[in-house]
Every structure is written in C-alpha cells, then in structure tokens.
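Please go through the sequence line and token line underneath and see whether the fold suits the sequence. See right below:
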Amino acid sequence: MTIDQAFNASTPTYDDWMSRALLGYSDLFGTAVQIIPFEKDYPLRVLDLGAGTGSFANHIHQVFPNAEFVLMDVADQMLEAARERFRGSKNRFKIQVADYRNLEGVEEYDLVVSSLSIHHLTDPEKRSLFKAIYTILREKGAFINVDQIRGETPTLRSLYWNRWLKHVHSSGATEDQIKASIERRTTYDKDALLTDQIDWLKLAGFSSVDLVYKNFFLGVFLGLKGNLANPDVPMGFTYNRLMESK
C-alpha cells in the first residue's frame, strides 16, 4: 500500500484519531498558532504541506480569519474531507493534490506550515524541502512545522514509544485505530534527530530557528526568514508580538 492509499483509508476517523493519539494535542497546535508572527487581521498567504483533512489550517483560520490557504497533499480523499470542512469559507481555501517534494515555481507565501507529515521523507528529502520552503517564502516569512523527533539514543526511543503506547491505550482509541497507526508508523515514518532538523533549517537559510515546544517525540519547529529587528519589516509582521508570545 502506498502512503497516499494508507492515509486515504484513514480519512473517516483521522481527525478523531489525531486528537487522541498526539501527546499534548492542544498545546502542540495552540503553540504553533500562537507563534505565527503576524497580526490577526493580516491577509496571510499560507501554504499547508501535507495538509490532510485541513486540521492545522483550521486552527490557523480560526485565529487569522483573513488568511488565504493552499492545502497540498498526495492523499486526494483526505483533501476532499478538507474541501468539505471549508466549503462555507468564501473561497479562502485552494485544494492541490500534489507531491510537495516538488515546490519549484510555486507562488510566494507569508507562512508555510506542516503537521505530522515531513517525517515521512528521507533525510536528504527533508533537507531539500527546507531549502525549497525558504525559497518560496516572501522576504519576511515564517515556517512552522509540527512534527516527530527521533530520540538520540535507543533508550530515549524506547521511552518515547512506550509513553505513546500508554497514552493511546488510555485515550479511548480503538484497538483497530491503534493497530493501523502502528502499521503506518513502522512502515512510513523516517523520524530525524532534533539537532539535525535544527541544522537543516539553518543551512536552508532561515535567520532564526528554534524548537519552541516539545513533548517527548513531538515538537513545534520555527524558522524565520528575514531580520525581524529591521525597521523595514512589512506591516503585519510584528517582532514585538513574537517576543511576547514566547
């Protein structure tokens, strides 16, 4: 089964599963939205990579109602669920069935986001993608990635895995959901080390890089393009707001 087939098959229960399966779900996405360094009424152009059913985009849209989104994924059925989610949102959401490993020639964005998707790429593909993301961001832009982190040692990896299993078994998830998730994780996941992901973002060109939240093997990565202390920062991109949110 290809990765798009696997995730298409999970579409009907995916949002419910993610809310149960992710350690610190509210904190993960609450932090990811909070660190977006734009005013809430700013007309953001947002690209969501591996958008799935549009859950991350929905969190952003609730805080930034004037934002416009491109939702990109290879799983067409998941994107159909996203289309239904945003059907009444006045054409603010564009659906694009595509492989985001090929971003050449796409339009520029203020914000690129991704959640629980990039860890499916090989390490060279991750490095290449981070460079492509930097290129398609506007002069002052941000990349926020909610994703998995590989433990530095076998002991940490075992700790993370056992903590996750304990969590999902106590979350009310069904045994079928847990079994399907374990199969996806062992088949498709290619988690990278924290230090490598930080280094690759810096090598891509991001001027400021940080892991702003971590819960066992889950984290929120932030990469900023441009000098935010520069007085020529465009309207809507607020250095003070970013500092206050940390």
